[in-house]
Amino acid sequence: MTNQGKRYKKDITQVDRTKRYSLEEALKTLASFQNTKFDETVDLAVRLGIDPKQTDQMVRGTVALPHGIGKNVRVIVFAKGEKADAAKEAGADFVGDDDLAEKINKGWTDFDGAVATPDMMGLVGKLGRVLGPRGLMPNPKLGTVTPNVAKAVKELKAGRVEFRAEKTGIVHTLVGKKSFGGDKLKDNINTLMEALVRAKPSSSKGVYLKSITLSSTMSPGIKLDPAPWVQ
After folding, report:
1. HEC readout, 124-149
2. Which of 230, 227, 231 is nearest to 21 (CA)?
3. How is domain 17-68+161-229 classified at the CATH fold level?
4. Is 197 exposed, middle or buried (0-12, 13-18, 19+ CB in 10 A)?
5. What is the residue extent of each domain of the chain?
6. Residue 119 has what pLDDT?
7. Which CATH architecture fits 75-158?
8. Tens of pLDDT along 198-223?
9. How does DSSP assign 158-179, residue by residue?
């Protein structure tokens, strides 16, 4: 058995698979797991009581996590003139128009977020087959198609994350790094969960937060009690 397998086997003995942990208990359990040689990403998987096939039950949005996500977020911007200059000043990693579109068409997707001014969407729309499947397509509902590109860049850089229900009705979102510690992870998770609850479709009936699982890159999952976030 590899070291990875031994570590997982030991960690899983510390998790009661029949229990729904409070957030505080879950974070303490996560912290007790053996550390790896790298700083693991912490993720939340939330299974929602929605029917993703129904357009009026799609859950999607963005939320700014108070402590960021613990990584350098690479942001590109489609803009010209003054807007391009503003994007560069705000810290965008790559700014352009036709040249940027050509670069992406050739297969370049080495970035985490994309922003565009409204007048650029004719050009950006042609990149849908590349950006769409990767969740990188600028969207006015998410604040990434906007005249205020500087604000959008700063928010993405600071740790604004997008959440979106998959076909199975599950939202997978990273909430930080294991090195953040319990308090910062707790803040980030509460902020995300509050945003998910606000995003509940009015047509969704019955139990909305069906299950919540906390885990890090190499750890077993820990089930959370949804009660604190149920309205």
Report:
1. HHHHHHHHHHHCCCCCHHHCCECCCH
2. 227
3. Ribulose 1,5 Bisphosphate Carboxylase/Oxygenase (3.30.190)
4. middle
5. 17-68+161-229, 75-158
6. 95
7. 3-Layer(aba) Sandwich (3.40)
8. 999 988 888 999 999 999 988 899 99
9. HTEEEEEB-TTSEEEEEEEEGG
